[in-house]
């Protein structure tokens, strides 16, 4: 219950994190099946759980996103509405995230873990837009972006990589 008091609020920039945290809170409260549609109404227990989920989702939205869900009657409708808004696979959003992937580079002060974490955020955005990347492409991006300090590693990797 304490974790729900500090829910991250959805804004224009943090949908992937918001969705991850909402799903974790709902799973911890044994309510994820309500929002996914696995458990359906009109059971009395379902109504109580649905009200809990609606409250959790509602409190986690900023005013802009809250306006979209006000007409929703169930938590499933609310979640579907937010997912539909944030995961629309438009051509422009696909181009934007693809450009973000290709422009992503190693920045001074980064370590391997922070570089890969940042790249994973972009890859997750791509996957939410149904852009699938092979592991080889992601590994290639990492190898390509490593700074010169990693030249010997890069060379070893290229020599040991299987020829296709």
Word description of this protein:
There is one protein chain. The chain is an all-alpha fold. It folds into 2 domains: 2-86, Non-ribosomal Peptide Synthetase Peptidyl Carrier Protein, Chain A, CATH 1.10.1200; 91-160, no CATH class. Helix content is 64%, strand content 0%. It has 9 helices and no strands. It has helices spanning 15-28, 32-36, 44-59, 63-69, 75-86, 91-103, 112-128, 135-145, 151-160. The longest helix is centred in the last third of the chain and has 17 residues, at 112-128. The radius of gyration is 20 Å and the shape is elongated.
Keywords:
164 residues; mainly alpha; Non-ribosomal Peptide Synthetase Peptidyl Carrier Protein, Chain A; 2 domains
The level of helicity is 55-70%
In CATH, the topology of the largest domain is named Non-ribosomal Peptide Synthetase Peptidyl Carrier Protein, Chain A
Domains, number: 2
| CATH architecture label of the largest domain | Orthogonal Bundle
Strand content: under 5%
Regions with little confidence, pLDDT below 50 for 5+ residues: none
- The secondary-structure class comes to mainly alpha
Work out the radius of gyration: 20 Å
Average pLDDT: 86
Q: State the separation between the terminal residues, measured CA to CA.
A: 52 Å
């Amino acid at each position: 219950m304490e974790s729900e008091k500090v829910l991250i609020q959805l804004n224009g920039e943090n949908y992937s994190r918001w969705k991850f945290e909402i799903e974790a809170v709902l799973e911890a409260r044994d309510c994820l099946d309500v929002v996914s549609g696995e458990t359906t109404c009109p059971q009395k227990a379902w109504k109580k759980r649905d009200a809990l989920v609606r409250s959790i989702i509602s409190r986690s939205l900023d005013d802009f996103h809250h306006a979209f869900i006000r007409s929703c009657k169930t938590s499933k409708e609310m979640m579907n509405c937010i997912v539909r808004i944030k995961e629309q696979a438009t051509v422009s959003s696909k181009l934007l995230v693809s450009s973000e992937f290709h422009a992503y580079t190693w920045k001074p002060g980064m370590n391997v873990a922070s570089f890969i974490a940042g790249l994973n955020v972009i890859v997750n955005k791509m996957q939410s837009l149904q852009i699938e990347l092979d592991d080889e492409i992601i590994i290639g991006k990492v190898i390509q972006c490593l700074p010169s300090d990693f030249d010997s590693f890069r060379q070893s990797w290229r020599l040991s990589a299987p020829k296709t």
